Structures are given as C-alpha cells and as structure tokens.
C-alpha cells in the first residue's frame, strides 16, 4: 500500500547538529483553538502516535496553549508511549494571556521558572528546542538569552530558538549563544519574512520553522468550503472577517485550480510550497484529524520545479490578501516591532 511507504525524512535544522523530521507537528490545536479540543488524552495520544508512525518526530507546544499548560500536559502524556531519544520536543515561554490582554516577559528569573514548569508538565528531563515565544521589548535580548544559555549548560535545554524576532534581535541573540531555529509565520499568504529574516537565518546558519503553513486552515478551505464555527478563534482573525474573507475567497479559487494541475489538494499544494523553500525549512502544521495528518505527510510526494514555484507565487500574491497577518491582540508582538533595548 503506497500510504505506508511515504515516511517523513530527517533533516538538520540549523547548523547546531539538531536533527528533526522534515515535517513537524504543531500541537496547539489538540487543546482547542481553531476547533474544539480533543475530548480526552487518549484521542490526542492517538494523533501523536500516528504522526510518529509516519515519521514525524518533531512536536511543537507552548506553555500558553490551553488553560494552565494543558497542551504540554497532554503532549507529555502522549510522549510516554514513544521512545524519548527518537522524538524532538519544542516548547515556548514568554507570552502571558490575562484579563488585560497579551503581555510578553523575557526577564531571566521568569525564563527559568517557565522552563522548570514546562519540564514538570511535559514529564521530561530536558527540552530539545526551547523558544522565546515573543520578544520582550523592555528587556535586552542578551539578558534573556544569557539565562537560556545557563539552562543549556545545566542540560535542561538542548537548543535555543526565537519566535517572531526582528533581524537585530536575532543577530544579537546569536552572538550570546547559537540560535538553532527561528519560528515564524510563513505561507503563501504570509511572506513578509522573505526579504530580511530568511537571508539572515541562512547567513547565520539558523533553521526556519514556519507556523501556520496552510494559512490557519485557509488553504484547506476553512472559511470557503467549510464554515468558521462559532467559538473558533478565527472569528477574531482579520483575514477571516466577513468583508476580508469575501475577497480572500478569490485566492482560494486560484489555489484550487493550481492544485488540480498538480493532482493534490489545495492544502497539500500550500504545504508543498513551504516544504520546497529549502532544506533548512521545517513547517509545523497542526490538526486533530488523522486523515488530515496523512494528507499533510503525503504533501511530501508533491514535487515542484522552480518554474512551478514561480507560477504558484505569481498567482497567489501576498498583496492580494485582505486583512492583517496577526490577531489584533497580538499585532504589537510581530517581528517588525521586536527590537530590544541595548
């Protein structure tokens, strides 16, 4: 059966010797965000186990996903059934959501407290890749990375990452301790990192981990062929707001035509486009459904030439997208505003 033969290959992420599966798994949705959460730990464990059986070994969580660290707890339980040395666990610290909205903290004592708490929830002795989730613009990045460096020296963290960091912040962080990976939104409709961030990462030997590579499900038809359900966080996302969504549907229809040509689904073509951006690029789509997980893995079968990539990029243009890339509550934390004091 062909299904079983497509296994996700391993690649080096960055130049620090960190090996991961070429396709990772974003765990955020397991505890609800775009969909309702999976109803029990066994259901989430089944999805994680299935991903591993297809060769996905790189799992991405964060302390802010789910109430009171629920996502890390769920992932920790799911990992109990897998061989620890064959999986790579990424998690993140730095974002706090409370009644006052979204705040970001990068103070050294907070970094340490978050790491200890994540290790407890995950039930692990070390975190393979520990990211600063968003950059605290009140704390010099050297102070935050200095504490992460100590955690590496103590063996609690293997590799350090940044998410939504500005070029200056990436460069300064990397001077304190090598940064292994930068996690950024990158997809056919979110391409703002291509001019500055991608070349910088390649210059410094930093891997790139695209989140939302299928456009938060848009290229899978969310909002077009399937409703955005009540209670789904996308109700508040600018690109899924009624008047913007109406314009964005045209993009999806173009994607459908391109996908027909490549004999795959629009979601698979969107993911294949990201996978083809380089050997140092490891996207982390998430899903709660096994069939979508299989479809994501099978997007590795979609082979695109440079001509194909050019055609897709010229038809699906970022400038045609209506609405901002981030939720309004998070807009101030985007990489363009992520410089820190000297």
UniProtKB/TrEMBL annotation:
<dbReference type="Pfam" id="PF00248">
    <property type="entry name" value="Aldo_ket_red"/>
</dbReference>
<keyword id="KW-0560">Oxidoreductase</keyword>
<dbReference type="InterPro" id="IPR036812">
    <property type="entry name" value="NAD(P)_OxRdtase_dom_sf"/>
</dbReference>
<feature type="domain" description="NADP-dependent oxidoreductase">
    <location>
        <begin position="22"/>
        <end position="313"/>
    </location>
</feature>
<dbReference type="InterPro" id="IPR023210">
    <property type="entry name" value="NADP_OxRdtase_dom"/>
</dbReference>
<dbReference type="GO" id="GO:0005737">
    <property type="term" value="C:cytoplasm"/>
</dbReference>
<dbReference type="InterPro" id="IPR050791">
    <property type="entry name" value="Aldo-Keto_reductase"/>
</dbReference>
<keyword id="KW-0521">NADP</keyword>
<dbReference type="GO" id="GO:0016491">
    <property type="term" value="F:oxidoreductase activity"/>
</dbReference>
<protein>
    <recommendedName>
        <fullName>NADP-dependent oxidoreductase domain-containing protein</fullName>
    </recommendedName>
</protein>
<dbReference type="InterPro" id="IPR020471">
    <property type="entry name" value="AKR"/>
</dbReference>
């Amino acid at each position: 059966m062909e299904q079983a033969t497509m296994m996700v290959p391993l690649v080096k992420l960055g130049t620090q010797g960190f090996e991961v599966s070429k396709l990772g798994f974003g765990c955020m949705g397991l505890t609800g965000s775009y969909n309702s959460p999976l109803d029990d730990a066994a259901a989430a464990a089944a999805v994680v186990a299935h991903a591993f059986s297809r060769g996905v070994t790189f799992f991405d969580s964060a302390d802010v996903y789910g109430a009171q660290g629920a996502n890390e707890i769920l992932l920790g339980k799911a990992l109990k059934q897998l061989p620890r040395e064959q999986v790579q666990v990424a998690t993140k610290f730095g974002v706090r959501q409370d009644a006052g909205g979204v705040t970001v903290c990068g103070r050294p004592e907070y970094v340490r407290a978050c790491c200890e708490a994540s290790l407890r929830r995950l039930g692990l002795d070390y975190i393979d890749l520990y990211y600063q989730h968003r950059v605290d613009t009140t704390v010099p990045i050297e102070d935050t990375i200095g504490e992460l460096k100590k955690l590496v020296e103590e063996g609690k963290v293997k590799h350090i990452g940044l998410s939504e960091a500005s070029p200056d912040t990436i460069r300064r962080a990397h001077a304190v301790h090598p940064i292994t990976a930068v996690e950024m939104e990158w997809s056919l409709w979110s391409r703002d990192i291509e001019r500055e961030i991608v070349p910088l990462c390649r210059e410094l030997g930093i891997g790139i981990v695209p989140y939302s590579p299928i456009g938060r499900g848009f290229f899978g038809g969310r909002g077009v062929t399937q409703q955005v359900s009540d209670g789904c966080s996308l109700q508040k996302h600018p690109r899924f707001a009624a008047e913007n969504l109406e314009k964005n549907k045209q993009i999806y229809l173009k994607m459908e035509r391109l996908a027909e040509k490549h004999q795959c689904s629009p979601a698979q073509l969107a993911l294949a486009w990201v996978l083809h951006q380089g050997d140092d690029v490891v996207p982390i789509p998430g899903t709660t459904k096994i069939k979508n997980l299989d479809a994501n893995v099978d997007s590795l079968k979609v082979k695109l030439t440079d001509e194909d990539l050019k055609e897709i990029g010229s038809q699906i243009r970022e400038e045609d997208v209506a609405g901002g890339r981030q939720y309004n509550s998070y807009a101030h934390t985007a990489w363009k505003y992520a410089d820190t004091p000297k």
